[in-house]
Q: What sequence folds into this?
């Protein structure tokens, strides 16, 4: 039960932000948005072994930059996109350091590439129609990086990291489609549920890296205390 306290708080604070906290004043909204991510970072840190591998530290740093993105994007889309981009680069590097390439895992590049091509082409078309050409290159760069991040998680063979990365892609797809293509009913709810779930699973993956034969990092005993 003791080990469930932080996950329970994460769930409660996420529920408050998604369903209870009003959109105004903005400062209160942003504060409650950041609390679940702050707790997820604490949870991730507590899951680290006494002497964590550098790759695990990179994933935690990625979580921190994503939290910055949560705050920045509320006031500046470009700043938020940049912070998330950096966060994904840390995830990508960390997962690659713990990956072991196999033909089956590498084959995931096909569905990931196909999905990115479909979503990306529609986003670019919508941005061009709306005269938002300045966003085309940043959005393409972001889609490339998050797609590579998802592929790197798959190459790691870690089920929690894979699920988290896929949910992250889904969350960002809903957000971008809703912003630039067409409205999605209850988009805010779907975006944040998939987002918080993605980040929690990525944090949770730190405990299981090295447990399966496909991983290249051996993780010592994880701290049991909160």
A:
């Amino acid at each position: 039960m003791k080990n469930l306290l932080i996950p329970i708080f994460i769930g409660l604070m996420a529920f408050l932000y998604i369903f209870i906290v009003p959109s105004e004043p903005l400062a209160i909204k942003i504060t409650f948005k950041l609390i679940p991510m702050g707790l997820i970072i604490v949870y991730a840190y507590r899951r680290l072994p006494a002497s964590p591998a550098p790759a695990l530290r990179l994933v935690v740093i990625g979580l921190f930059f994503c939290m910055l993105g949560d705050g920045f994007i509320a006031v500046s889309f470009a700043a938020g996109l940049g912070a998330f981009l950096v966060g994904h680069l840390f995830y990508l590097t960390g997962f690659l350091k713990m990956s072991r390439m196999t033909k089956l895992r590498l084959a995931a590049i096909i569905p990931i590439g196909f999905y990115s091509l479909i979503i990306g082409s529609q986003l670019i078309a919508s941005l061009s129609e709306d005269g938002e050409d300045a966003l085309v290159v940043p959005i393409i760069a972001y889609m490339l990086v998050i797609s590579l991040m998802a592929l790197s998680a798959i190459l790691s063979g870690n089920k929690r990291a894979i699920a988290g990365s896929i949910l992250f892609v889904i969350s960002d797809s809903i957000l971008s489609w809703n912003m630039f293509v067409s409205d999605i009913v209850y988009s805010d709810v779907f975006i944040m549920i998939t987002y918080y779930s993605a980040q929690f699973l990525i944090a949770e993956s730190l405990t299981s890296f090295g447990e399966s034969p496909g991983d290249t990092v051996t993780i010592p005993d994880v701290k049991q205390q909160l």
